[in-house]
UniProtKB/TrEMBL annotation:
It comes from Paenibacillus herberti. Belongs to the glycosyltransferase 28 family. This is UDP-N-acetylglucosamine--LPS N-acetylglucosamine transferase. GO terms for molecular function: hexosyltransferase activity. Keywords: Glycosyltransferase, Transferase. PANTHER family: MONOGALACTOSYLDIACYLGLYCEROL SYNTHASE (PTHR43025), MONOGALACTOSYLDIACYLGLYCEROL SYNTHASE 1, CHLOROPLASTIC (PTHR43025:SF3). The keyword Glycosyltransferase applies. One of its GO terms (biological process) is glycolipid biosynthetic process. SUPFAM superfamilies: UDP-Glycosyltransferase/glycogen phosphorylase.
Amino acid sequence: MRKKRVLLLSEGFGSGHTQAAYALAAGLRQLSPDVQTRVLELGKFLNPVLAPLIMSAYRKTVGKQPKLVGMMYRTNYKRSFNRFTQLAIHRIFYTQTEQVIQQLRPEIIICTHPGPNAAVARLKRLGLDIPLYTLITDYDAHGTWANTEVNHYLVSIPVVKTKLMARGIPPERIEVTSIPVHPQFWQSQDQAEARSELGLKNMPTVLIMGGGWGLMEEEDGFFTYMTKFRDKVQLIFCSGTNEKSRESMLADKRFVHPNIHVLGFTREISKLMDAADLLVTKPGGMTCTEGMSKGIPMLFYKPIPGQEEENLEYFVSSGFGEMMHSLGTIDRWFRQIQEPYSSGQHRQRLQSKSSQQYDPLECPTAVLRLMK
């Protein structure tokens, strides 16, 4: 009997969209051996020369002109892609999409980025007869996600469902499933055991992340300030794919210490979260959801104007984290994690809250149900 094929389409604008696609794919395979998945960053797959140039330009804009990114996000917030825009996107980036679909022959298509979502929606309007599901990977619903051809939306929280309904999407086609995380994050490991396996000391530990693109240049001195605690607090800096940032840190004497670890790209984020007492991160939808699944307290810094601001608002208002406004915020949290009883009690409360509000199996389970 042929396995059911699921095609997941994303784009590499940030890493969260593609991480969500891989997380959902892994969850589907974990729950059902009858499912075969394929994840593609569609624009990069179809345009291997042009796509990296576009991604690089976007990354530089985010780093150097975040206000411009925010202005573009807000200006088009209520607008979906009209038919002319869909046609333009198709001709520039997605001309071979139909051929890819015909070759892979999926039973369903799941999009985790508005670009492929618009491309497949256009093909459905022209006669493609394959169910299209859309997984929104943030805690907000930008207008570009909305397409009447989408068969079903999978969203993070009820507020996102309400926003889609306001854009004309029928409520029966929207399901609140949370954002999926990889099965590695479905359960937590004993903290001391995780530290031992990672070669870390069994002491108060802070994990500092900057998303898939790694730590950006610090304008506020927060990271450098954290090194003042290095004799009492273990610091793990994850620079992701930002090798320039990693090299800069390793060349700085303030970051050279037995209790400071500067990592590049790693697949051990789940275990690192288990080992840590505090997560310092940008409020990307995926990283925050992974942190919530682990029940780890989070400190947020430098949200990209737009969706990261919406993510920040949700996690702060829900009690899972706090904005890092000042050095005083760092002082307060770094003191707290040095008090084992207080720190342990706080994490237990977050883990209890997480188990009540977040079910990592909900999204893949919903997809399997829709496929029947």
